[in-house]
Design goal:
This protein is of the alpha+beta class and 488 residues long. It has helices at residues 3-54, 163-215, 230-278, 285-316, 328-339, 362-378, 410-413, 425-429, 437-447, 474-478; strands at 58-62, 68-72, 86-90, 96-99, 126-132, 135-145, 152-161, 324-327, 347-353, 357-360, 385-393, 396-403, 451-457, 461-469, 486-487. A 6-stranded mixed sheet has the order 9-11-12-14-13-15. It has a 5-stranded antiparallel sheet with strand order 4-3-7-6-5. Strands 1-2 form a two-stranded antiparallel ribbon. Helix 6 runs antiparallel to helix 9. The structure holds adenosine-5'-diphosphate (ADP). Adenosine-5'-diphosphate binds at residues 371, 375-376, 379, 403, 405-408, 416, 421-424, 427-428, 433-439, 462. Keywords: Kinase, Membrane, Phosphoprotein, Transferase, Transmembrane, Transmembrane helix, Two-component regulatory system.
Length: 488
């Protein structure tokens, strides 16, 4: 069943239930009110008949045994005159004494239960609904008691045909059923139309998405509906998703191309050297040594690159980080010691060194800081300086490496953290860098819920920093300090 049909069905079923409840409620309320009216009428008529008899319809007669007996002057019933009601007077043994003329020649006997009525039942009486000759009749029987004497001298039965009540209830039922049927029909039609209208944007969205899948063109976007509603949000989300997918595919394609390109260069160099050796280079000791040195350099470069790629792949695959307490000041000192042998004419020093401990993966943090340090030493000419610092700022630990080196052009700043990016293709090729060092720094910072920044001026040096939240809280991650550095 289509979603549209299901929506229509659910809507109609709920509406039908509401109608049923409302219909039943109305029917029973009206029925109750009508029967209460009938009861009131019967009670009023009963009081009237009793008043008539109390006013003189009872005659005390002494029996031959000397006992005082009350006799009814039955003709008094004729005084009661209501065309809608039939009044009957019975003896206590159930024999009909007299009735109002509108009874005609129909028979309306006393219900047997009424013979059990005692003087205490004067107020309530006994009510019954019967069908006589195809007509429903409600009767109220009450005992006739002489005031001051607790003796039942007769029974009064007031009856009323329920034709008008039945008619009213019949008309009401017919109206409720036909009205509900029409309302349900209209609701079903309306729900189908509304569901169709509501689902049209989804149909369009599906068609466009299908078109994108068929054309295998992730650059296409779904047209955003003009109204600010759920569909607009859905479309925007799908477009964002497409953009992200496109981005991922492009990155992946570029990544594969870059990796093959990067691998080709050292491999080609090694192949060249092997050919030199093959063509008699082995006999020339100087040539052979040169070729071996070359090949060693290239294999070293390959190993470095493969290691870097492995590290990146691991952080991409969200391999679990070790979560240990890391004393960042000790880490800075350790990195400083490892960098010192590489300094060669560059003044390496430690600047600010706050005592900060965070939770994280010590090895990866060290690798990231080493990458920054090696870069700084590499791009700083002799006589320049490189400063490692550790500061606690705005809820973050900031590990920074500042140098007075060659700097980076402003246009390139935003890209330096991208994979295989080299700010100036010519200057880093000879150093053997594959453009992966900074992407590792970025991934390590992000894996710790932090981020990496760079501030640099061409010819005036650069400052790279890793910002790590002291307590990993989502709002802390959002609340990044704003300065002129480039955030990645
Ligand atoms: P590589 O392995 O080539 O050094 P990185 O990802 O570490 O790759 O760096 C990317 C590029 O950013 C480098 O090629 C270099 O041009 C530039 N770069 C990195 N650090 C510095 C720095 N301290 N000073 C100037 N340029 C730098």
């Amino acid at each position: 069943m289509s979603f549209r049909a299901r929506l229509t069905l659910i809507y109609t079923v709920f509406f039908a239930l509401a109608l049923l409840l409302l219909g039943c409620g109305t029917y029973f309320a009206v029925r109750q009110a009508l029967y209460a009216g009938v009861q009131r009428e019967l009670s009023a008529a009963t009081s009237q008949v009793r008043a008539i008899f109390n006013a003189g319809g009872l005659e005390p007669i002494r029996t031959p045994t000397g006992e005082l007996r009350l006799f009814l002057r039955v003709e008094f019933i004729q005084i009661f005159n209501n065309p809608n009601l039939v009044a009957q007077i019975f003896r206590t043994d159930g024999e009909l004494l007299d009735s109002t003329p509108n009874l005609g020649n129909r028979e309306l006997p006393l219900p047997p239960e009424a013979l059990l009525l005692g003087p205490e039942d004067v107020g309530t009486g006994y009510s019954v609904v019967r069908e006589v000759g195809g007509l429903r009749i409600e009767s109220l029987v009450t005992p006739l008691v002489l005031s001051g004497n607790e003796q039942v001298v007769g029974l009064v039965q007031i009856s009323r045909p329920l034709r008008d009540v039945d008619l009213t209830l019949g008309v009401l039922t017919a109206m409720l059923i036909s009205g509900s049927a029409i309302a349900l029909l209209l609701t079903g039609l309306g729900a189908t139309l509304i569901a169709g209208r509501v689902l049209r944007p989804i149909d369009e969205l599906t068609r466009t998405a299908q078109g994108i899948v068929n054309a295998e063109d992730l650059a296409q976007r779904v047209p955003v509906p003009p109204h600010q509603d759920e569909f607009q949000r859905l479309t925007i989300t799908i477009n964002d998703l497409l953009a992200r997918l496109e981005d991922l595919f492009t990155t992946q394609r570029r990544f594969v191309a870059d990796v093959s390109h990067e691998l080709r260069t050292p491999l080609a160099a090694m192949q060249g050297n092997l050919e030199v050796l093959d063509r008699g280079g082995l006999r020339d000791a100087e040539l052979a040594t040169e070729a071996v040195i070359d090949m060693r350099r290239e294999t070293g470069r390959l190993i470095r690159m493969v290691n870097d790629l492995l590290l990146l792949a691991q952080s991409d695959a969200h391999v679990e980080l070790r979560c240990e307490l890391v004393e960042l000041d000790t880490l800075v000192l350790e990195v400083y010691r490892e960098l010192r042998p590489l300094a060669q004419g560059v003044h390496l020093r430690i600047g600010n060194e706050d005592q900060v401990t965070i939770k994280g993966d010590r090895d990866r943090l060290k690798q990231a800081l080493l990458n920054l340090g090696v870069n700084a030493l590499q791009y700083t000419p002799q006589g320049g300086s490189v400063t490692l610092s550790l500061e606690q700022r705005d809820g973050f630990a900031c590990l920074s490496v500042a140098d007075t080196g060659i700097g980076i052009e402003e246009t390139e700043l935003a890209h330096v953290f991208a994979r295989f990016y080299r700010a100036d293709q010519s200057r880093s090729r000879h150093s053997g860098g594959a453009g992966l060092g900074l992407s590792i720094v970025k991934r390590v910072a992000e894996a710790h819920q932090g981020y990496a920044t760079v501030a640099s001026q061409l010819g005036r040096g650069s400052t790279f920093a890793i910002w790590l939240p002291l307590a990993v809280q989502p709002d802390l991650v959002e609340a990044r300090p704003v300065d002129e550095t480039v955030q990645v």
